Amino acid sequence: MNAPASNRRHDAxxxxxxEACATAPEGWDAYIERHPRASAYHRAAAVGIGARAFGLAxxxxxxxxxxxxxxxxxxxxxxxxxxxxxxxxSLPFVTYGGILADDAAVASALGTLAVELARERxxxxxxxRHAAPWEASGLAERLDKVSMVLALPDSPxxxxxxxxxxxxSQIRRAERESLEIVWDDxxxxxxxxxxxxxxxxxxxxxxxxxxxxxFFRIACEALxxxxxxxxxxxxxxxxxxxxxxxxxxTIEVPWAAAxxxxxxxxxxxxxYWELLSYAIRSGAQAFDFGRSTVDSGTYRFKAQWGAEPxxxxxxxxxxxxxxxxxxxxxxxKYARAAALWRHLPxxxxxxxxxHIVRHLP
Length: 361
What we know:
By secondary structure, this protein is an alpha+beta fold.
């Protein structure tokens, strides 16, 4: 495992003291619990997913006021790649991360120390994933991603009426498949194995290296009490599956997949109906379908359910005035690799994928 930089402190203006540590400082999770913009991924255990799954160096940056009270936090995970260089991310593998702070001065102090750490580690860039603007940051900003979020009604019956006849017909179409729908709030090994069987095949077909199965076990352990696994079987075979995560009054689906058969028979539509119904029954006020590029295929799929785009603001410090990195299909290197990946046998993609994906945020 790469060793993070030793603990360090920095005194900022206004009596704010920032500190970078290899472990979460006292009060970290308590601060996450009370901050209105916190995600489940800001929790100390979730910040450590990359360290446990891939051995990635992790740093907990915090800020305290003159009374030694915690007033801001920023988790950072270090990654490196032969293609894309070295970088610090808050947070990789998920949509949400970035700075949580009591005010603009604290946010600025945290950002300043993060840039110092990036320079110290000779990183090519620092990426902070925010769900809100940060005009005072002075950092480059990327605005090509949105989260697709649906405000939920009080009951599944109200949701059904809002969806319209076409969607209701597609959901009913899947009933011909003799479906077995299983929720596992304990995310046991059988549920995760079934989820992974579907997810790994779908990622290969998309040309994307897949996480190892242990990544999802570790993620579910870190998010204990906040996540659940859904598996939809047809004829005893897993055809669609998803993992959901709770962020306060919002349920997010960060990982979901369906087989080609599931898409052809609308089993994937039934899965999303089950996800939405689960969110309503659990008392959520909103359902987050995950991030998309505007006007992409996934964007349009989510929009048909009534989801509305919410702008994501990803901020970058860049070494030597480098361009904002494009670790996606708009990068020719990435696109060529994805095209080749789609033609790999599934066993080969599952074998090689985990060794590659640890380098991708």
